[in-house]
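Notebook, p. 212. Picked up where the previous page left off. The plan for this session was modest: take the two constructs that came back from the sequencing core last week, fold each one, and keep the raw output in the notebook itself so nobody has to go hunting through shared drives later. Recording the first one now, exactly as returned: residue sequence, then the structure token string.
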Amino acid sequence: MAEPADILAGLAQVPEIAVADAADLDARLLNATTPFVVRGLVADWPMVQAGRRSAGDARDYIAAHARDVPFTVSVGAPGTDGRLFYDDAMQMNFRMARAKLPDIFSKIARMEGQPDAPPVYLASIDLHAFFAGLHEANQVDLGTRTPLASIWIGTKTRIAAHNDVPDNLACVAVGRRRFTLFPREQFRNLYLGPLDHTPAGRPISMVDFHAPDLARHPRFADAVAHGQVAELEAGDALYIPALWWHHVEGLADFNVLVNYWWRDSPRWLGQPQDALNHALLAIRDLPADQKAHWRDLFDHYVFSNNDDVVAHIPEPARSVLAPLTPESAGRLRAFLLRQLSK
């Protein structure tokens, strides 16, 4: 796999911290607003130990816990340097397939060490739904958080810079990974692609980090000035705050990552991306004077949201203008669904 371009060579390293125990990690995560690396956080996992023996041992260990169900796998084209992205026609440059995990692992084993082998990638596989006992034997104590635990398995791959709504603790179990990170406000300088036609549900940077075209993407140099990089070995972990952009590379012939996503906000709240998509549908193409009015309303009801918004309404009658509860959020969701179905 090619190396990142020279423009990325001077990136700052993600700070590293040491944690004494689960309570210490919990406190660090609670107060963190920027990324950090914890070396060796999951070094005692049986999965990490198997991978240190060999990639084959890691695959055998993981397969022994797999449920007898089809897995969804992405298979790219040979000679793409592992990049799972768009092709020249802005279609995906990989195909999706379904197969049992032992069959997928057999394909990976046959290709191991071959130059220009097609990338094979299993993304965001739910640990509980697709494996029995793997999570229980290999997990991080995250205190009272109730995270979504996922496993990511693949050959050498490059995943374009994107962000996720939840906080993220990414733990390298097998192989090596390089993360290139940018603060959330750098989205303008990353040249995001389509919002609705994406490789994995989130908009991605159109910049090729191994060959950035600064004539086409000149502001990428500004993003790099704010970027950080972390190269992780098996057993290491990286905390990625919510909405931070991250470009992810699997550097070994076989790589496994376990990550934990969690949100501090209640699960019954809506997804902000849905609101953005709806605003594109309902507001973006209005006349300028109407857009200005709706911008003012959004600021009033959503972003400022001070006491003056509801002071003139009797408290029992404030409905969805009051702080949301699971019940009022459910009513609002049902109202939106009815409106969208018209």
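Okay, moving on. Second construct, recorded in the same format:
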Amino acid sequence: MIRFLKIFFGTVFTLLILIGSCVFYAFKIEPYRIASNQLYLNEKTSDFIKVVQFSDTHIKADFNYKNLDKVVNYINKQNPDVVVFTGDLYDNYAKYHDDEHIIKELQKINATYDKIAIWGNRDCGGGAARQYENIMQQSGFTVLKNENWYVTTDSDKKILFTGLDDSMLGNVYMPDSTKIYDSNYNILLIHEPDTADSFQEYPYDLVLSGHSHGGQVNIPFIPAINQKAISSTNLAKNYVSGMYELNSKTKIYVNTGIGTTHVSGRLGVVPEISIFHIYL
């Protein structure tokens, strides 16, 4: 009996240590890490443009400008030609914002040609709608809302970026489609990934989105937890993380974001910077 109790309490103690370690990692370590995904598209020539995407920073008290500085430095190390932000700058602007420091950090991002941003649902609510565009413009970003924007490379190649408004709290419509054919590569920027299904007839090569956070928690061998987290996120159920074939011509990539929302933890979904080498 004594031996049994020793084994029992030893097992319980080990499990508590394991659970405590996982909780500590999920709240204190993983949310402050950065992973990069290098993707190579249309590898047919030696001429390419490097597009770096980050998304869903969800700036708040426990993830502030000091944490954003690490993200900015990581982006700059990639030597990007174009930097794209796919929405959700603050988590809740009414509860926490620090525009002065955030602008100073975002201004540090360097790109050969341009920095482009679109709206996320968090940029439309909590008072953010009155400030978001001004913040991003002061930070050197071109803010698109149902607009086309062309970037021309030093080799005279043209890349189209179409940025749409937020699908949940904005007013989404496609800009004049007659203008999207005179380009070497077409990229559609949306915040909520499932919105892409509504624009499959347009000749885009790549769709970039965020919003899902990849569910924030993805424990191996327990998929139900990740599925439950994903099910609570609107317009991010069909495309959750990584690359998908939208149709025979178009790919969609879902960036799992930098910050956290609802719960300030991540487990198995490391904050992500996406680097696209797009051959022209």
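Notes on construct two before I forget. The first strand starts at residue 35 and ends at 41.
Flagging for discussion at group meeting.
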